[in-house]
Amino acid sequence: MYLSTLFASFFALTAYALPLSAREASDVKCVNPGDCYRILEVSIDTPNGRPGSDNQVHLWFTLWDDSPKISASTTCSASWEAGSNGWPNKSIECDDDNFRWSFSKFESVTEWNIEATHDFIMDAKWGARSFANGTAATDDFECDADDTGAKHCSLKETRVINLGIYAMIA
């Protein structure tokens, strides 16, 4: 009796955890609510490189888990030295610490692959974590430089960056 209960529990948890490997980040299409996290707003400021000026890249974005049972959003942000390899490649908490994110690949401030997780309560009794990834491309952004050479980029109004959910554990 104990062994059959153990097997049933194992297979139930395995179903939530599959697949365990991340898909290659790509342009993700989200058909149903809950298929993706969505990045709805992005703001990126890059320095002008002049001596004495702020030499930091500043990034913030709004991340939304649109699952009908959850529908939670948060602001995520990071800063790092321009021209360095200091971009966020380790998991960073968002303002809502149930969300975390990192870049898995970073080519420029407008070309990157992102990984994100969201911890939540499932069915009012079980803790769960979902994993998602997606890609931003230069075409997703509008960028303007000011008179000093500093650049500001934001997500185009017609764009959303979708992060496909590829795994969940409970």
Short description:
The protein is mainly beta and 170 residues long. 9% of the residues lie in helices and 50% in strands. It has one domain (25-169).
Shape: elongated
The chain-level structural class is: mainly beta
Per DSSP E runs of 2 or more residues, the count of β-strands stands at 10
Largest sheet: 10 strands, antiparallel
Strand content: over 45%
Kindly report how far apart the N and C termini lie.
24 Å
Number of domains: 1
What's the order of the H and E elements?
Answer: HEEEEEEEEEE
Which segments are poorly predicted (pLDDT under 50) over 5 or more consecutive residues? 1-26
> What is the overall pLDDT average?
83
Helix tally?
1
Please bin the fraction of helical residues.
under 10%
Radius of gyration over all CA atoms, rounded: 19 Å
Keywords: Signal
Protein name: AA1-like domain-containing protein
Organism: Botryosphaeria dothidea
Signal peptide: 1-17
